[in-house]
Design brief:
Elements (H helix, E strand, L loop, with lengths): L1 E4 L7 E2 H7 L8 E3 L9 H4 L4 H9 L8 H11 L11 E3 L4 E5 L9 H19 L3 E6 L3 H10 L5 E8 L5 H8 L6 E7 L2 H13 L1 H6 L2 E3 L5 H16 L3 H6 L1 E5 L4 H11 L6 E6 L4 H8 L1 E3 L19 H8 L4 H14 L1 E3 L8 E5 L2 H15 L5 H6 L9 E5 L7 H8 L6 H6 L6 E5 L2 H11 L2
Parallel strand pairs: 5-15, 6-7, 6-9, 7-8, 8-16, 10-11, 10-15, 11-14
Antiparallel strand pairs: 1-2, 1-3, 4-5, 12-13
Helix pairs in contact: 3-4, 3-10, 4-5, 5-6, 5-10, 6-7, 10-12, 16-18
Pyridoxal-5'-phosphate binds next to helix 12.
Amino acid sequence: MRYVSTRGGSPPVAFSDAVAAGLAPDGGLFVPESLPDLSAELEGFARLDYPELCSRFLERFATDIPQPELRELVGRSYAAFDRPEIAPLLELSPEVHVLELFHGPTLAFKDIALQLLGNLYARQCAVRKETINVLGATSGDTGAAAIHGLMGRPGVAIFILYPDGRVSPLQERQMACTGDPNVHALAVSGSFDQAQAVLKQLFADGDFRRRNRLSAVNSINIARILAQSVYYLHAWLRLSPEHRRSAVFVVPTGNFGNVLAGWMLQKMGVPIRGFRVATNRNDILHRLFTTGEYRVGEVSPSLAPSMDIQVASNFERFLYYSLGRDPDRVRAVMGEIGAKGVYRFQDFDRDTFTSSRCEDTEIQGIIRQVHRAHGYILDPHTACAFKGMDYSGPSVVLATASPAKFPEVIRAAIGIEPTHPTLEALKSKPLVRHKIVADAAAIRAFIETRAV
Ligand SMILES: *Cc1c(COP(=O)(O)O)cnc(C)c1O
């Protein structure tokens, strides 16, 4: 299997090269050259546990990695999860299932992809006999999940920039209390946008980038999408025959990576009924799916911060498939969005997608209501997915974070503060962070002295 760019301007590459590059050289996103048809194999898949299913699924995509090695790598990636099912599926009521995706080391769904990606990076370093320095800016979850995916891997150092004082204390501890000498948590004075601007400057400095073999952490890596398709398949296989036909997957959505993974699986012949894209007040995707218009807006901070986005970075893959895999049309539309900030769809998969929008003022009420009805505690992101649940049919709600990551919101809603042993343990560990100004020269100098 080879990987092509959504913009058609880069030669096809092998899986490992697409993973190592992240973004395609022509600025597009990598997609598999073709999607396999899994429909004849679903019965055989039904008996496999999570790591086995993941290996069998990825074998079709990671064709340049020997199968025994891939299996071993997948096994290691999910060994640190605190539930044997990896992604347990619970029944809240006969109609409502919850797919818990937060049993990895940082208690959010990004671990599922980033634990695997960390091992893929480390393998690539070993094969090429090179080291890499991974650099990213975060406003919370991604940084922590990336650090925990990469730490302790030989030949890899990681530098994460975050706005000082603007990530939650728990998130900061997840990044800065690892005790790993190759993990560098940089508390940048300034906003997330300023940290991101510095990062761009550093990546634009070709000499510096090559000398330090810099690699970016972001949500567009094709390995992340494929790793996420697996939990949709694992959950779908565990539904009753009736619900396999009728259940809709409800997905708390920001960058569109999570729901895209499910949609691509549907394109591989898994007959999933549909997806509901659940947004918070930052509702660019809800507006798209209700009006057909994709219009870039202003971000406003919410109680579900990991969904606070204004440009969904995985949207380009959705465009690619929606425009009949025609890279010329993708280039034209991306150009139009860049220039005008808006694009009107003529046609997209309307049978498959519905959407909802949840106001901040509704989040605590939903948490309270679900707790009262089912004794189950939702985190603020997952709460957004319960908007409008009363009148929808059978569903599988993706729970993207543990409520223990958001103790203040939960306490305000139900008077209980959820805890988790992993987070409690962090409180007694020394915090090692580096306060630094939002200045490219200062951060360049820091990286230069600590790079591997
Ligand atoms: C990242 C994140 C999301 C959004 O996922 P996308 O793939 O960006 O759509 C939702 N919930 C939580 C808790 C997250 O960390």
